[in-house]
Every structure is written in structure tokens, then in C-alpha cells.
Amino acid sequence: MEFAKLFEIIIASSLINNFVFTRFLGLCIFFGVSRKMETAIGMSITFTSVMMISTALSWIIFHFIMVPLEITFLKIIIFIGIVAGFVQASDTIMRKISPGLYYKLGIYLALISTNCIILAVPLISAGEHYSFIESIAFAFGSGIGFALAMIIMASIREKLELANIPAPFKGTPIAFIVTGLIALAFTGFSGLIKI
Amino acid sequence: MAQKDTVDYFGLIKNGIFKENTIFKLALSLCPSIAVTNNLRNGVLMGTAVLFVQVMVNITISLMRSFIHPRIRLPIFMLVISGWVTVTDMTMAAFAPEAYKQMGLYIQLIVAFASILARAEMFASKNKIVPSLFDGIGMGLGFLGALTIISFFREILGKGSLWGFTIIQAKPLLIMVLPAGGFFAVGILMGFFNWMGMRNGSKSRETL
């Protein structure tokens, strides 16, 4: 039962409520980084791991500090502080401990703090009263969903570079329209699970 | 246009609305431009919220600019922004509970707007309070205008109504209120503005 619930959350957050295609979050990063497959994959990996850890941290602070002190109305300020602090810390730690990994993924870390998904996940899981494991599953599913979106988009955009597009639509406008088409396909998932 | 001092207020506002329009030109802060624009009312509300936050943040940062040590400026900016966003969030929850239910999450996520942080960093932290105020108004109006245009087209095509009142008695294009329609609308409008820009002889801005 418990496992089924977790599975449901992962599927729901990655496919049905995919952050990019049905909740429209993280679009700045999505359009900015999805130009090459390699960067898309790097971004997805960094993003998913950072998001899981920062969601766990936010959950702990929310339930053990903010709820007892009745300062839940400050959750926007505190969550963004946690995320920004954690991103900064992992940047420093990664540079010291594994310079190789930092060289590969470090540039994405700086971008992450401007991504709205990373703030939305703790906010939603606080709003939905998820348990600790559930909110981690939610973060994982959202990360997978974002990775899926990035990889689909990157593989299309690599081809799109060579296509003959009317001049005013070059660049971002055509990327929007392609995203619209993918989003249309993702609407097909909406009946997958009844919650 | 220019008043006593050398600041061109009208130019500042115009810059925010046309030259550096957050959505159509800079392609920043796109999330709410699609999420809340399936009807005109939400679009205008969201735009107003952003306008308010942008202006207040610009004023606050500009007031505090000589006290902020450059090395810790980003955390301070984030604090100021999230403070004002919390104010907006609570006001909205109190006075417009219906709309808040649909778009509360996106109001809270104004915190993560690159455009607000960018204006605080690039303009308000270096300029006096009055120019910062006008810069905030300009950027905010540009955003509000963009959201209004997008939601106008989406609501009239997708539901045949405006601000909740039915206008066209025909079978609407359901796709425009679906998520996908939002992407199409923004993409086509962006292309349209690029085309206008090209026709007027100015160089096309390839954002790619």
C-alpha cells in the first residue's frame, strides 16, 4: 500500500503533472539549456539530485522548526534561503572534493537557483502535507519529469538548428511551438491514474 | 521628455515596455506567462502583482543601496524580494480568494523571477530612488502588457469570452485553454513581434 502510493506519486509528478508541460515551471532553464543533448543530460542529473536533497532539508525544517514555532507563513522566505544556501554550499563542497565532477556539472549549479521548480517542489509538498518519504518521491518524480522534457526537447532542437524556419520564428518562438506540440502529446497521460 | 535632471523618465518606462519587454524580448520569467493566462482576469491580476513587487523591490533596494555590502548583495536582494512577495501573497489570499486558489503557487514563485532580481541588480542598486521607481513601473507595465495580450487571445479563442463574459457564440477552440495552447500563443506572438521589428528595419533579435 505504502509502496503503491509512492509509485503513484512518482508517476503523477513525472508524467501526468509534468512540471514543464502541464505546470509550466522551469521554463527559463528549459529553453535556455535544452540546445545540446550533453548539457541537457548534465543539467537533469544535477537538478534532480539537488532538488531531492533540498526538498528533504526543507521538509525537515518545515516540520520540526516552522510548524512548532507557528511561522509557516514565512515559508517562501525560508525555502528560498534553504535552496540558495544549499546550492551555494554544494558548489563549494564539490569544488573542493571532486574538481572533475565540478568541472562537468558546476556551471549548472549556478543556474539551478533561478529555477522555479526547485522552489515549487518544497512549497507544493508543504501544501499537500506529504510525509517525508512522499515528498522525496515527489521531488524524484519531478526531477525525472524534467529530465524527460529536457532530453526530448534537446533531441528535437538539435535537428531544428538545421531546419528551414521563417526568419521571425528562429530561436525561441519556434521552440515554444515545438513545446506546445509535445505538451499536446503529454495531455494524453492525463487519464493514467485516478487520484 | 527629459526633466530638470538628466534622467529621461519616459524613456525608462518605454524601455521596459518595448525594448526590454520581459517576455517577448528577453524571454525571461516565462512560467506564469503560460500558466495563468488562460483567462484575462488571472492574467491581469498576475501582471499587477508582478508590477507591484517590481516597483516595491526597486524602491527598497534603491533606498538601501549604500548600506549593502557588495559581497552579500544577492542574499539581501532575495530577502527583500521574498518579503514583498509574501506581502502580495497574503494580500491576494485575503482579498481575492477565488483567484488565489488557482494561481497562488505562481504568486509565490514570483520570488524566483529572474527579471526582478536582474532589475534590482542592474538598475536599482546603482540608481537613485526616483529613476528606480520609474524603471520598476516600466518593467512591470511591460510584463503586465504581455500577460494581457496573451490572455486576451487565449480567452477569446479558447472560451469565446472576455473577463468571464461571453462574447462570441461559437464553438471555441478548446486547445487554446489547454496547456499546449499557451505555448502556441506565446510562440506565435513572439514570432509576430519579431516580424514587426524586422519590418520596421531594426535588426532582428535572435535570442538563440
Structure report:
The complex is a heterodimer of chains A (195) and B (208). Chain A has eight helices and no strands. Chain A is mainly alpha-helical and 195 residues long. Chain A has one domain. The longest helix of chain A has 33 residues. Chain B has a two-stranded antiparallel sheet with strand order 1-2. Chain B has one domain. With 208 residues, chain B is mainly α. In chain B, a hairpin with a 2-residue loop joins strand 1 and strand 2. Chain B starts with 8 loop residues before the first helix and ends in a 9-residue tail after the last helix. Chains A and B meet through helix 2, helix 4, helix 6 and helix 8 of A and helix 2, helix 4 and helix 8 of B.
Labels describing this entry:
heterodimer, A: 195 residues, mainly alpha, 76% helix, 0% strand, B: 208 residues, two-stranded antiparallel ribbon, 2 strands, 66% helix, disordered C terminus
